[in-house]
Design the sequence.
């Protein structure tokens, strides 16, 4: 098996290549806006609480809008939906630039723009993710998801660095402006896709449709296991909120060291994405996901007691690589086991799990760290993650046994026929250009 990421989707699908490139450029622009908002809020208030409140402004719309947005993705042409939401997101980025150039400096306006941006993003991102299984062959699904995760890791590590240099040279207004312009690439990639109407009967969007998706997840051990395994890692074992305290306690408290701790997980994730070639050959992604979550927990446990900076950074990098692999495996399971008529709602649940789990994890680790100690919080979180893996293995045996070579083993609800990933859809070489989220 090749170690490096499988780039066949980029070589063989012009539409995937266009969409991936456009999404990557736009995501880098989005990272610049995230950097600029944090800096602008801090410049206005000089308050860490005001900066932290941005996370709340993002989380509330994500949790409230995300699942409902998935029901709209299952009721309409997903390509048109993404074009509409992306256009709205581009307009919001333009408003960020306008307020910066106008020198308004209104804190409430920044919070409102962040909240509205998160609400549209909670609809846009899940709908985009439904493109991959429709337009890539089954054998390239994991490769496409790994390339999408590579985009995220590039933004996580490179985006803030570019934004910092640009802000130093031209001010944070330039970050907002570049983000708004970068949406042209994303809109071009989506605009070249074929129609993406859901297969089968379209569900009427609303709470009932959301409830149907939740019931589907509850009845499927494989999907429930994928979501619970990810939440087990992020809610119990995420140590990011503890970095400032651990840095001050062990490593001198310098800003440079804190930056290294913060970047280490992202660097490990980038390396994991770049070396994701073997992931596409894993036949039992549920079992592999349990192993990667266990590696995450073990690495965080080691970090909790590490007093050598190099060892601590290395363990965080290992955790980042394990986390990236976990995300790709979770995405593969979600997309491969979900019928297309439910894909928008299940993918929206996947998005909410990924976005909300991290916020809850920071809240949990910070609370335990304040009640006990930062070391106790990180150590207990890592050990609890490993314990959670054992419990999931015992409680959800079908999750560990799920084999992609046997579609009927996916633990589907009774009466739910399995739809091959590309059923009734010829491959890209036989019809219109294909793409991926």
Sequence:
């Amino acid at each position: 098996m090749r170690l490096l990421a499988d780039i066949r989707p980029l070589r063989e699908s012009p539409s995937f290549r266009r969409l991936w490139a456009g999404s990557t450029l736009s995501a880098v622009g989005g990272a610049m806006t995230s950097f600029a908002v944090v800096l602008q809020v801090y410049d206005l208030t000089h308050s860490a609480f005001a900066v932290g409140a941005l996370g709340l402004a993002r989380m509330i719309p994500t949790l409230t809008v995300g699942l409902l947005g998935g029901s709209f993705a299952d009721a309409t042409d997903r390509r048109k939906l993404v074009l509409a939401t992306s256009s709205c997101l581009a307009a919001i980025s333009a408003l960020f630039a306008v307020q910066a150039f106008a020198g308004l400096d209104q804190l409430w306006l920044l919070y409102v723009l962040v909240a509205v941006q998160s609400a549209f993003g909670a609809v846009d991102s899940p709908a985009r993710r439904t493109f991959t299984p429709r337009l890539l062959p089954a054998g390239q699904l994991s490769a496409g998801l790994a390339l999408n995760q590579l985009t995220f890791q590039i933004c996580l590590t490179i985006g803030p660095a570019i934004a910092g240099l640009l802000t130093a040279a031209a001010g944070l207004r330039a970050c907002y402006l570049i983000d708004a312009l970068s949406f042209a690439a994303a809109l071009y990639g989506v605009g070249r896709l074929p129609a993406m109407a859901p297969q089968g009967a379209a569900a009427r969007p609303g709470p009932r449709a959301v409830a149907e998706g939740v019931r589907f997840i509850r009845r499927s051990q494989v999907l429930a296991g994928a979501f619970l395994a990810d939440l087990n890692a992020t809610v119990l074992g995420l140590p990011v909120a503890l970095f400032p305290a651990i840095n001050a306690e062990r490593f001198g408290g310098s800003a440079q060291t804190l930056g290294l701790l913060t970047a280490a997980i992202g660097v490990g994730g980038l390396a994991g994405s770049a070396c994701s070639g073997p992931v596409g050959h894993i036949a039992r992604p549920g079992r592999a996901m349990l192993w990667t979550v266990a590696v995450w927990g073990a690495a965080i446990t080691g970090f909790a007691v590490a007093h050598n900076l190099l060892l601590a950074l290395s363990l965080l990098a290992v955790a980042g690589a394990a986390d990236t692999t976990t995300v790709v495996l979770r995405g593969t399971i979600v997309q491969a086991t979900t019928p297309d008529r439910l894909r928008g709602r299940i993918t929206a649940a996947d998005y909410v799990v990924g976005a909300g789990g991290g916020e809850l994890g920071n809240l949990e680790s910070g609370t335990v760290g304040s009640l006990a100690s930062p070391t106790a919080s990180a150590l207990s979180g890592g050990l609890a993650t490993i314990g959670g893996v054992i419990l999931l293995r015992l409680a959800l045996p079908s999750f560990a046994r799920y084999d992609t070579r046997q579609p009927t083993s996916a633990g589907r609800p009774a009466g739910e026929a399995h739809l091959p990933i590309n059923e009734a859809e010829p491959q890209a070489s036989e019809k219109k250009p294909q793409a991926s989220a």
